[in-house]
Structures are given as structure tokens and as C-alpha cells.
Design goal:
Length: about 400
């Protein structure tokens, strides 16, 4: 690829998460100017105000470009090696930039947690991305990096120790504290709206193998009820992000040549505590999710909730909430010889924003510096399959996310 003027462009920099990404990129770039970068968005005025308020150098390039303008997207993509896109909902605004990156062989990372859109884009662009060399990596935020990489990390150790993958892995969210933003709420609402219009979207959301076209593994556990987890001696409820994470985990497995096996089973739930209190919490959480899903299935309820309850675009958790957040996930499996193997993912800051803005930035830098084009082919990737273990030291040192192994 010919030398391009920029290494990284953050598209959507003036949004809630985009601003956090820009802030972190500014800090990461440092005085040594390790890489070159620019901020992009649809309003030059907002970008200039952002550059001032971040205290960024006056020479930091700004790119005015609207996602509805394919020419502007092509021109943006041609100027850089990697694009970080925080312009969502992706199913509403993501098509053109993705197309431009695929056409121009530009690497792309995003925070997409919209599996129906991702499934459609994999079918549409996989062959062209392979041909152009564009490395496209969806879901580089809290969904799904800690989960996708947690399973990859655990399977890597299982393979090293016993030459066989774990046939079954359980991901248990032990702790999670954080808020959500207007953009995340808008993405959820866009998916619910698409489901109410088109029943194939509901089928895609329910299919754990929706992101592995041509491959369907064994039936996967997906109980919507509270259940007792004997190994953990605790009650669990369905985890709200499991429908996204499980699909990415299975796609990673497929992209890695089924390194976890063709019979691999993955289950992801949230632990709610032990004893009667844990049971009550788990039953309450399962019931609440069921009612929320039912209520949000109706357009009038969605409109009311959007108007009076949800944060608006550009809004999200404040600095203190972001700093005080955290998350912890435990992954467990049993080897073919009957030995239990576990790994922990422990993260600082609130998962959706304080952590996500750093994680997606490190994913972009990893594509730029650890796994250059000549070592990873073009295509629609997952973080676990494209960057894999190369991400571990970056995430630990820079994004406060640490993976560790536990052996019985
Ligand atoms: N996976 C995760 O862990 C995770 C975590 C956080 C966020 N997210 C996702 O990230 C996305 C952004 O969330 P957010 O809360 O940051 O949203 P936000 O504050 O609403 O920001 C969205 C940005 O998109 C820009 N935009 C909208 N339409 C555009 C267009 N036609 N052309 C160019 N720019 C356009 C907006 O520009 P203006 O500023 O001009 O309005 C804004 O800068 C959402 O899809 C959310 O689900 C995912």
C-alpha cells in the first residue's frame, strides 16, 4: 500500500465516545508523535471546538465528512491507514464508510454491537475486503473484546497444556459497574425497531452462529431463566450482551480454523450471588429482562422511553462514574482429561466508555503496529482472530484490562 498521509482517523470524534477516543489518542500520541492522527466528523465547527477544548496542537488535522456522502467517505479512507468509527447506530450510518474502507484497502475498527447489520455486511463485503486487503474489525469495545479475547486466551492455554481445546467454556460476569450513553441507547432502539419491521432480524439475533455463514455448530445453551451454577455456588441470570458476544466468539473460532473445535459450546451469563438473596436477584433480573424485551417490542413504549428515560445523543456517564467503574469476568472450561482451567478478565473504569475508548484505540494501534497488512489478510475479522494475543500487553498497560490464568 502506498504511504498515506495519516496513520489513524477517528470518525465521530465530536460524539460522546468519539471524544473519549480522541482524548486518549492525544495522550497516547504524546510528545514523541509516535503516529499521526486526525479527527473527523460532520461538523467542522464542532471539531475545531473539540480540538481547542482538548488542548490539542493547532495543526492537528480535522476532516469534515458526512456519513451520507460516499465520496467524502472514500476521500477520508484514502487519507489514512486505519479508521476508528464511533458513528453509530452503525445500521443507520455505517454502510458508506465501511464500503469506502473495503474499496480502498483501509483498516477499520468500530464499536458495533448490532449483529444483524454485521451479519449482512460480512456476506456483502468479505470477498471484496479479502481482495483489497482491508482489515475490518467490528466490536472492538467492551462488547466484545474482554469476552472474545478471554475465550481465546483460555483456549490458547488449554491447547498449550493438553494439545486439545476446551469443548465447553462458560463466561460468567462476576462484577460490572458503569453507565450508558445516548448512542448506545439509540443503537439498541434501532435494533428493536428493525426487529419489529423484519422477522429475519429476530432470527439473526437469536442465532449464535449468525456471524459464521455456512457453518452451524452444536446447539448452544441460552436459557432466559435464572439458574443455579453448582461450580460457582451462585445463581445466574442471562447476560444482556451475550447475544452479541457469543456470536463474535463463534466467529473467532471459525476464522481461526475452528481452533476451539467444531463442537465448541459457549455460554455467557451474569452471576448474581449465592443463597436466597442471590436467587431473588437472579430471578428478578431474568424477569426484568423478559418484561423489558416485551415492552420494548412495542413502538409506542419505545417512543416514550426514548423521550423520557434514555440519555440523548452526545450524553453519557460523567468523569467520576467512568473512573469509578469496573468489570470482572471469569471463563471456565474442563479439558478432555477432566482438568478445570479458568481465566479472568479484570478491567478498570466503566466498561462502556472509560474502558471502551481505550480498548478500541489499542485495537487500532495494534492493527497499525503489531499485525501489519502483510501479516494479516484482508477480510471481516473479530478482535480475537485478527489481533489475538498481541492485544494482551497493550490492553494491560494502556487500557487497564488484564487477563490471567487460574489453575485448580
Ligand atoms: N461496544 C461498546 O462497548 C460500545 C461502547 C460505547 C459506544 N458504543 C457504540 O458507539 C456508537 C456511538 O455512541 P455514542 O454514545 O458515542 O454516540 P453519540 O454521542 O450520539 O455520537 C455519535 C456521533 O456520530 C455522529 N454522526 C451521526 N450521524 C452522522 C453522519 N451522518 N455523518 C457523520 N457523523 C455522524 C454524531 O455527530 P454530531 O456530533 O454532529 O451529532 C456524533 O459525533 C453507538 O453505536 C454505540 O452503540 C459501543
Amino acid at each position: 500500500m502506498k504511504k498515506r498521509p495519516l496513520d489513524i482517523v477517528v470518525f465521530g470524534a465530536a460524539g460522546f465516545t468519539g471524544r473519549l477516543v480522541a482524548e486518549f489518542l492525544l495522550q497516547r500520541c504524546g510528545a514523541q508523535r509516535e503516529f499521526s492522527w486526525a479527527m473527523a466528523g460532520r461538523s467542522a465547527g464542532k471539531l475545531a471546538a473539540l480540538r481547542d477544548s482538548l488542548g490539542a496542537p493547532a495543526g492537528l488535522p480535522l476532516i469534515e465528512a458526512d456519513a451520507s456522502d460516499i465520496k467524502a467517505m472514500r476521500s477520508l479512507a484514502q487519507r489514512t491507514q486505519v479508521v476508528v468509527s464511533t458513528v453509530g447506530p452503525y445500521q443507520m450510518h455505517g454502510d458508506t464508510l465501511l464500503q469506502a474502507c473495503v474499496e480502498t484497502g483501509t483498516a477499520y475498527v468500530d464499536l458495533c454491537g448490532e449483529p444483524a447489520w454485521m451479519a449482512q455486511k460480512i456476506t456483502q463485503h468479505q470477498a471484496a475486503a479479502r481482495k483489497s486487503g482491508a482489515r475490518i474489525v467490528f466490536s472492538c469495545g467492551f462488547d466484545s473484546v474482554p469476552f472474545d479475547l478471554g475465550v481465546h486466551f483460555l483456549q490458547h492455554h488449554a491447547l498449550q497444556q493438553s494439545s486439545q481445546p476446551l469443548p465447553w467454556v462458560r463466561g460468567h460476569v462476576l462484577k460490572m459497574k458503569g453507565g450508558y450513553s445516548g448512542g448506545t441507547a439509540a443503537s439498541l432502539m434501532a435494533t428493536l425497531q428493525a426487529q419489529s419491521r423484519d422477522s429475519s432480524v429476530t432470527r439473526t439475533m437469536a442465532d449464535p452462529f449468525a456471524l459464521t455463514p455456512g457453518f452451524s455448530g452444536p446447539s448452544q445453551p441460552d436459557s432466559a431463566q435464572a439458574q443455579f451454577e453448582a461450580e460457582a455456588n451462585a445463581w445466574s441470570a442471562p447476560f444482556v450482551m451475550a447475544p452479541i458476544n457469543t456470536k463474535n466468539v463463534h466467529r473467532s473460532n471459525a476464522l481461526l480454523g475452528h481452533a476451539y473445535g467444531k463442537d465448541f459450546v459457549y455460554e455467557e451469563r451474569q452471576l448474581m450471588g449465592s443463597g436466597q438473596a442471590g436467587e431473588l436477584r437472579a430471578r428478578g433480573a431474568a424477569r426484568l429482562q423478559k418484561w423489558q424485551n416485551l415492552a420494548l417490542g412495542f413502538a409506542p413504549t419505545r417512543a416514550l422511553i426514548r423521550r423520557f428515560v434514555l440519555p440523548k445523543p452526545g450524553q453519557g456517564p460523567g468523569p467520576q462514574e467512568r473512573e469509578n467503574g469496573h468489570y470482572r469476568v471469569l471463563f471456565t472450561g474442563t479439558t478432555a482429561q477432566g482438568r478445570r482451567l479458568s481465566a479472568r478478565a479484570e478491567g478498570q473504569r466503566d466498561p462502556g466508555y472509560g474502558a471502551t475508548s481505550r480498548i478500541v484505540t489499542e485495537c487500532a494501534l495494534s492493527l497499525l503496529q503489531d499485525v501489519p497488512r502483510d501479516r494479516t489478510a484482508g477480510g471481516i475479522w473479530t478482535p480475537g482472530a485478527a489481533m489475538g494475543l498481541a492485544l494482551l500487553p497493550r490492553l494491560q498497560e494502556r487500557a487497564g484490562l488484564r487477563f490471567s490464568l487460574e489453575e485448580d
